[in-house]
Amino acid sequence: MSQYALLIDYKYCTGCHVCEVSCRKEHDIPLDEWGIKLTEMGPVKMQDKWLWDYVPVPSDLCDLCEKRVSEGKKPACVHHCLAQCMELVPVENLSAAMAEHSPKVTAFMPR
Question: Which CATH number does 4-108 carry?
């Protein structure tokens, strides 16, 4: 299986927590642990603008749904994301994919 990264364009994340719920259900993760955790940054006033972002952060438990991906499916968080702000990208295409998105983009690769 080729190497993949999870590309998250958090400019569009609405903070719905569906990524957390779908990951927990897919991997049967206990309530005190997370495969992906939604963090909230803000609200904070910077000059004349208010900034308020939600940032999904994968944990060490995230394996990018290796089993689902090997079956040709998307990772659970990507499949269920209501804002469609996550995508699974082959590592060799990561740089180009990041260039296509807003400046509020981050990438995650499991260990």
Answer: 3.30.70.20
